[in-house]
Amino acid sequence: MTVAASHLLEVEDLHVEFGQGRDTASVLNGVGYHVDEGETLAVLGESGSGKSVTAQTVMGILDTPPGRITGGSVRFRGEELLGADPERRRMLRGESMAMIFQDALSALNPVYSVGFQIAEQFRFRRGMSRKDAMARAAEMLDLVRIPNAKQRVREYPHQFSGGMRQRAMIAMSLALDPELLIADEPTTALDVTVQAQIMELLDELRRERGMGLILITHDLGVVAEVADRIAVMYAGRIVEHTDAATLYAHPGHPYTRGLMDSVPRVDDVAGAALRPIPGLPPSLSAIPPGCPFHPRCAHAEDVCAAEVPLLRELGGDHQAACHFAERFVAEDPDRPTTHEVVSR
Amino acid sequence: MTEPLLAARPADTEPEPEPDAAEVSGLWTDAWRQLRRRPLFWVASVIILVLLVMAFFPSLFTSIDPRATDLAGSGSEPGPDAIFGRDLQGHDVFARAVYGAGPTLAVGVLATLGTVLVGALAGLLGGFRGGWQDSLLSRFAEIFAGLPFVLGGIVILTTFNPPGQPVPESRLIFQVVTTITVLSWPIAMRIMRAATITAKQQDYVKAARALGAGPLRIVFRHILPNTLAPVLVYATIQLGAFIGAEATLSFLGIGLKDPVVSWGVMIAESQDRVAQIPHAILFPAGFLVVTVLAFVMLGDAVRDALDPRGR
Which of A7, A21, B84, B89 could pair covalently with B93 via S-S, beta carbons 3.0-4.6 A apart? Predict the structure, then answer.
């Protein structure tokens, strides 16, 4: 892994809370990750694990209030963003970092044509005329392979299919050629065949433009093929971080194992019971002491309830936050390979 | 990887592919293109245009003096002498209705504009900023919302306008418009505030912020067009209500009064003799109904044109 002086994006020990007094929910409890140019980092986790809040904090679009950033640091090319001039951060958005959302229909303004929304950036950030900007918007639609882009540029979001809306959203976020793209569950609202196409498109655009890509998802199948590295989040912390192959072959955290076991596989006997992780993620206003996962963990011991396991290096750029990580890594369970997980 | 199946379907259903993709396309130009095709819009526009001409040049429609009285013909039925008949005072009802269009429309349209502008701006600000600014504006609005309309109107108008003094027509209209605006803006504000809060939480606002849009662009380009529909509906309904409110104030002797003629004044004057002289109330009421209808149709057409999903 690159140990460059400064990464494209570096998030360190990020803490975010929501609410006041006794209702305070600690949504992020020391999240840290980094992305370099041309690289894909997948952030994996259940709903409520803090994936999106991290992304919104990075972008600077977290609603405060109710949110509150209580600590940590976000650096873009070495420049500290938390506490930076809001105007400076606004300039970076769109220009240097952009974000796409899960539901492209609600992320596109229903009263404007798709082309108009893309063109807006060329008009106001590049000073182009309406006409030139619309022509550039059509080029962008073409770039994300929307057929017949010259005509479709005039259409409204509701006239697009789900996959095309997500493509339009991608076109919009890439208009100003950002160096970092955060994709917040970009394929969750789409059906499986379209999912694959969107992922392929994102992967290609990343390669062509050499941009860093943060892929937020809860879908193991989606990340397996495109991610260079995977960070697994649980209760507002990174609990495991390594490259995709290692993660699938030797997960070091029982939560990661649980996630993989809960995906049904093609070689399952028909009618076999699913293997969900028992219990629910903890309430963020009452995170259990010690390891936040211990109440749901089959391997929990006394130390797990007493001591918070830190994210530690296991060798080979593989980090996990579990007291017994070495034991799990060494074990060679009946584990599906990456390929099997993808094909399900 | 071109999603052939998905791509083919919407392209087929496309109604009329306009060839020039670079042709300027925007919210208002698209809305206007849409509006032009609606008969409803043209009917409403023609009626409103006629009413406006009537308001500015009443002498084009009648040569009769609306203030001339013919007591001998008091209450006479519509006939060749006076096509809408005469009221109790022997005024020509048609001439009065024509001359009443100006003050009536002035009060109705200006009060609606004032209410919607003040209310919408306050609602937009409160809904978007939230926090203490929203609380302050909302509490302030509740003070005005709490005033009963008639009582509030009496207090305001008699304060600025002690009885027994002749007041010029334009000042009187201005005072009535201001009174109505001051007492009615909180409702427009609440509607706008609710719509703004809804729109603010939509993903497209977040997406706009993620692409670096500033607060002004977000409010006026992204939130405002999505909040117009409820306010437009409210405005078109209120227009009729405000013309009625003006009649209420006139009836109490604090609104428009002789020599100013308005439909509200005419209705108020003749309502105690509905049984004997029905035409004196029916004709101004009819003008009022047509006017309100025209504005409702216009508001409806504009609202539809602004919503691309309805096309």
Answer: B84
